[in-house]
Write a structure and sequence with these properties.
By secondary structure, the protein is of the alpha+beta class. The protein has five helices and six strands. It has two domains: 92 residues; 134 residues, P-loop containing nucleotide triphosphate hydrolases (Rossmann fold). Strand 5 and strand 6 form a beta hairpin. The radius of gyration is 49 Å and the shape is elongated.
């Protein structure tokens, strides 16, 4: 009986000891779990910080690109301002303008004009710049006056890009010509064909009509003009 009691007592002691160990292990487990939770929260916090840093980096990259673009645009505008100031200084330099006009533009116009006149007139012209005036010396009759005005317009359109077109419209410019000038008219027409894609010539002269590709006759019906195309 005594032995049984002692065995029972030992079992109770061992049971209590085991329970204490279990409790101790549970405490350790709870502590480690808490540490793990803290670590998880720390990792999440660091991930959030990392994402925020990445956002800031991307923003800095975008800001840098924006700054570079603005800087390049500013440089471009500064260059345009410098070019404008150079052009403005040139334009405001009256002596330089007169020099360019006398030595470059007027001689160029005169040469081009006289080259054309070789084939369509019996005279040449001289263009002079004299005391703020441009003087043109030439012979004048009805045909030559109209022809010269026409050729000046053609020459100016070739020199200046502001008034350059691929077409020309003329109203009765050749109607004052006589028989001796017919061949000159033909030369002028051929010259215009070489310089313009298309043209409209208003004329009552049959010779002029025969030198163009198409003819449109303006007629009247019920006092209203119409054209058959």
């Amino acid at each position: 009986m005594i032995d049984n009691y002692n065995n029972y007592k030992n079992d109770i002691y061992n049971y209590n000891l085991i329970n204490k160990q279990i409790d101790k292990l549970n405490d350790i487990l709870i502590k480690e779990k808490n540490n793990l939770d803290k670590t998880k929260h720390y990792i999440i916090k660091k991930e959030d910080e990392l994402n925020e840093n990445l956002k800031n980096i991307n923003k800095c990259i975008f800001d840098r690109e924006t700054y570079n673009n603005l800087f390049m645009e500013l440089e471009k505008q500064n260059k345009e301002i410098e070019e404008y100031e150079i052009i403005n200084n040139v334009i405001c330099n009256e002596e330089l303008i007169i020099k360019i006009l006398k030595n470059n533009i007027i001689p160029q116009i005169q040469t081009l004009m006289n080259n054309i006149l070789l084939n369509c007139a019996s005279y040449q012209i001289e263009i002079l710049y004299n005391k703020d005036n441009i003087e043109i010396y030439k012979k004048e009759n009805g045909f030559e006056r109209h022809t010269l005005n026409l050729l000046f317009r053609i020459i100016f359109s070739q020199i200046s890009g502001l008034i350059r077109t691929n077409y020309i419209i003329i109203d009765e410019c050749f109607d004052s010509s006589d028989i001796t000038n017919k061949e000159k008219i033909k030369n002028i027409i051929e010259y215009m064909k070489s310089k313009y894609k298309w043209g409209i010539i208003i004329s009552h002269d049959v010779f002029v009509k025969d030198n163009f590709d198409k003819e449109f006759i303006i007629q009247y019906k019920d006092n209203k003009p119409y054209v058959n195309i």
